[in-house]
Amino acid sequence: MAKFDYDLLILGGGAAGLVSSKVARGFGKSVAVIEKGKLGGECTNFGCVPSKSLIRAARAAHEMKHLDTLGLATEAPLAINTDGVMRHVRSIVEKIYNTHLPESFKTLGIDLSFGDPQFTDNHTVMMDGKTITANKIIIATGSSPLIPSIEGIDKTPYLTNNTVFSLDTLPRSLVVLGGGPIGIELASAFNRLGVETTVVEMADRVLFREDRELSDMLAGKMRGEGLNIVTSAKAVKLSGDASQITLTVETQDGQRKDISAQSILIASGRKPNLDGLDLEKAGVRYNSNGIEVDDWLRATSDNIYACGDVAGPYRFSHMAEYQAILACSNAFLPVKKRADYSHAIWCTFTDPELAHAGLTEEEARAAHGDTIEVLRFDYSKIDRARTDIEEFGMSKIILDNKGKIVGAHILGTHASEVLHEIQLAKRFNIPFERLWQAIHLYPSYSDVIRQPSKYHYAKKMGSHPVIKLLKKVMG
Description:
By secondary structure, the protein is of the alpha/beta class.
């Protein structure tokens, strides 16, 4: 049997790489990690952490402007200075980065190095003239912003989520190209912080992967706060300099329109980080979406696995962690498990949040026809939302003709937390009408799940043949 330097070599020190390295050490394997940039990957440095910090600051600014809803008053005129916002965001990034410093890897017995690895075969990589061999390899190199082919973009300064948090001061005005989660989260935050913001989306609505009813509700609320949203518009040309840019868009009827601002943020998609790896030498196939893997997250070379953004299909840190555990387990344990994405969940962390589990109403109707049942419950009907003045939003539970949960969507405060009750019921096949029977705290936002569960139970009991008979007998 060939002798290797390590049992496992991991390319990438982001969420997927960090988790898989610790799992492998838990199995007693020798592990090395190579990171090209900074530990923590996209989520810590350019994604989840800084964006949520910015959103929190924006929420505070928004609340200050609406203190009258709580019976409070401020001296006029109210002025909010945002000059320190980005410094605050960077301080939070640094705080979280410091929880997984390089020294912590050494403590765990993991060899960590920084550089640009290149495959020479499916067991070997070269880095800075040094050869590293491993029995198994996990590719977890993540993703980066996809820059679209727009006339003039190569001559015009632009921001991405990798650079926007390096700003010292906020721009006066901003165009955000892309109405997906990254674009909408950042656009809504900048708008609340006083930046004149316009979102440009090629589809007919923003957040087009979300349930249409709820994404339309959210877009309406953001428009009400002053965010300009332009849909069904294709970006065709970009020009300008550091003082002002102009984006030319083309509408569906062929009309062209210029949108000007001080800066533009490109948030039109992601691409897998594959450049320079020489994957062909390792026998690893890939395409524009990432590395091709089977149901066990194994690449086209049997000893190589891939997980996280570089493999897809979902580009979220929690999905990267799920895949990392699975890939590492499948690499070393005798019992192999398939990746199961039927219970994937995510959340767009706007304010309010839009959380997603399973099928949207549109998808459910396509899969099950009109046999589905859609349960809605407004935030305005729960006491905790009333006390917090957070009455905007609703939960939307979708059941098949047997009463099984096939989808759940929540728009509202703390939606990302409340969704987990439905996620557990869905994952472990607990009938929705049973959830209300568990004692829930009062007052809490969990009522957007408990109450529709209770009403669904009452409706189901009311249509039960025995109950119907008793009603008839008893008049």
